[in-house]
Structures are given as structure tokens and as C-alpha cells.
Design a protein that fits this description.
Elements (H helix, E strand, L loop, with lengths): L2 E8 L1 H18 L4 E8 L3 H8 L7 E9 L14 E3 L9 E9 L3 H11 L5 E9 L12 E5 L5 E2 L15 E6 L2
Parallel strand pairs: 2-3, 2-5, 5-6, 6-7
Antiparallel strand pairs: 1-9, 3-4, 8-9
Helix pairs in contact: 1-2
The structure holds xanthosine-5'-monophosphate and magnesium ion (MG).
Length: about 180
């Protein structure tokens, strides 16, 4: 089956405004502190790079990345989460913020949360650009959420289908092409 871009769900301007708000909120919450921002590759790259530039200089920001196994060329989760690339930093005693593109079933984030907690950070929070509440299977506390979206497969602004469309500045719904 092949997929095609359908309508725009979130435009470039709408995303930009919301990312700026999230950056302000994070700046207030972490003012005077050091914060390690961990991006989940590859989907969170675009969001993270915009978000950290909206965190002001009252926060000492460091950036790290990890990668987990992805969906492959499918729009359904396998339910199996595997670390493909770990972070370089030692997060023990540090304030840490995991940045992810989307919470779908929540399996990825619940796994990552538990894994990072084992390393004894001082604080651990989660920031997602998108949340699909209709799909949740695992309980995860989201501290910062950009948008709540319906149960549709979306691409753009870092999100992909089979590796494609991450570069689009807006977020689109994809549907099977007729
Ligand atoms: P779970 O189910 O573990 O999944 O919360 C999180 C990961 O699934 C991918 N995902 C999507 N990717 N459009 C995408 O491009 C979507 O609509 C979508 N829903 C889930 C994504 O990689 C996320 O990290
Ligand atoms: Mg992802």
C-alpha cells in the first residue's frame, strides 16, 4: 500500500507559536539551572532544534540524543522498543528533559522514562510535540505537550512515513492512496 499527503493538520505558523510558548514555559521552570535536553532520534530533531532556541539564557542547556528502534515502513507500532544509540552524557544528579515527537501508544516513552530513571537524574520530565490520547496503552506523565491530535498518522516537522517527509515545515495527515 502507498500513502499520500492529505490535509494540513498543523501549519508552520501554528507550530512556531506553540513551540515558542513551550520554550518560555521551560525557561521559567528551569531558570538558574542546568538542563540536559535529550532528543529521541530521528523524529524529534526538528522540534528539538526549534525548541532549544526558544529557551532563554537563564537556563544552561546541554543537548544529547538517543535513538530507539522505529516503526520501519509501517504505520503500526511493533510494541518492541530497543535502544539503537544511547546518550553520551552521565545524567546522574542532573535535570533532564526527554524531547519526543509524538506519544502514540506511550510504549516508547514509558520504556525511556524507566531507563533514564535507573540512572538517577535529579529530575526527569517529558516534552512531546504531539499526543494521540486515543491510542495510549502505557501510563506516562507528559510535562510539556505541544498539541493533542486525533488518531491519524501524521508526517512533517520531523515525523516521517518510511523515512520521508520529515523536512516539511507543516504537519500533514497521510492516508492510503486510492
Ligand atoms: P509509541 O507508540 O511508542 O510510539 O508511543 C512513539 C513513536 O511512534 C512513531 N509514531 C509516529 N510517527 N507519525 C509518525 O511519523 C505518526 O502519526 C506516528 N505515531 C507514532 C514515532 O516515531 C514515535 O516516536
Ligand atoms: Mg520517534
Amino acid at each position: 500500500m502507498s500513502y499520500e499527503l492529505n490535509e494540513v493538520l498543523l501549519s508552520e505558523g501554528v507550530i512556531k507559536d506553540r513551540v515558542r510558548e513551550l520554550g518560555r514555559q521551560i525557561s521559567r521552570d528551569y531558570a538558574g539551572k542546568e538542563l540536559i535536553v535529550i532528543g529521541v532520534l530521528k523524529g524529534a530533531v526538528i522540534f528539538l532544534s526549534d525548541l532549544v532556541r526558544c529557551i532563554d539564557n537563564s537556563v544552561k542547556v546541554k543537548i544529547d540524543f538517543l535513538a530507539v528502534s522505529s516503526y520501519g515502513a509501517s504505520t503500526k507500532t511493533s510494541g518492541i522498543v530497543r535502544i539503537v544509540k544511547d546518550i553520551d552524557s552521565d545524567i546522574k544528579g542532573c535535570e533532564v528533559l526527554i524531547v519526543e515527537d509524538i506519544m502514540d501508544t506511550g510504549l516508547t516513552l514509558s520504556y525511556l522514562y524507566r531507563l533514564m530513571m535507573e540512572r538517577q537524574p535529579r529530575g526527569l520530565r517529558i516534552c512531546v510535540l504531539l499526543d494521540k490520547p486515543d491510542r495510549h496503552q502505557a501510563e506516562v506523565n507528559i510535562d510539556y505537550c505541544g498539541f493533542t491530535i486525533p488518531d491519524e498518522f501524521v508526517v512533517g516537522y520531523g515525523l516521517d512515513y518510511a523515512g520521508l517527509w520529515r523536512n516539511l515545515p507543516s504537519i500533514y495527515i497521510v492516508r492510503p492512496s486510492m
